[in-house]
User: What shape does this take?
Amino acid sequence: MQITSVRKRIPPRLPLHARSPGFTLLELMVAIAIFSLIAVMAYGGLNAVTKQSTILAEQELEIRRIQGGFRQIEADLFQIINRPVRDELGNDLHALAGGIDATLPLVFTRLGLPNPLNARRANLERIHWLLEDNQLIRLGWSPVDGRSYSRPETADSRQVLLENVEAFSIEFFDAANESSPTWPPANQPQAQLPRAIVLTVSLRNRPTIRLTFDVVTPVELVLPPTEAKAGDPSALLADSNNLESI
Assistant: This one.
């Protein structure tokens, strides 16, 4: 009996260029690791850019608020007028007073109250600057006589001028350029308006700001159109001394 050996036929090894394309497990793991690293770096960069954009937007909004507050301060001080007022008890109050109460640095009467409906009323407004909770708040009353100025809640308007106020001081200069931390000065109790007002404001994370304002008393007052004669420009002007009767 003849025994024939059986050999397993092994297919011939194909050349490299003839093999089917693909990746080994090691190559896939390396590719995934590289992709993950790139994704983490990209996410970190995008997150940093988003945070920076948010911070810049908040800072821009804060700067706009500060600029708006100082514009209102400038408008108020440029419209100051020598017009004393009377409170609800009939007591006479100075046209401008300040520096006596730390929480109430300045009170004054100003012109320029908007009158879009041309109502028959004076364009006067009594303004209180109030320091409260690190905010400089603007309170306004109109009409200006017979009001409860000792009660801030009775104000007709309330506006936050500045936030994050760390320090706020006012200095007054009289006609002789003598400075005083209060107005009227102790040696001039009947003084009317100062010649200039200097504000020093310190806001959180901001440099200290020092502003000087000349107090210009208007010689003429523009009356509401309803009180003027049509076609007569001179009828629009009145001497500021007549303000006591408004």
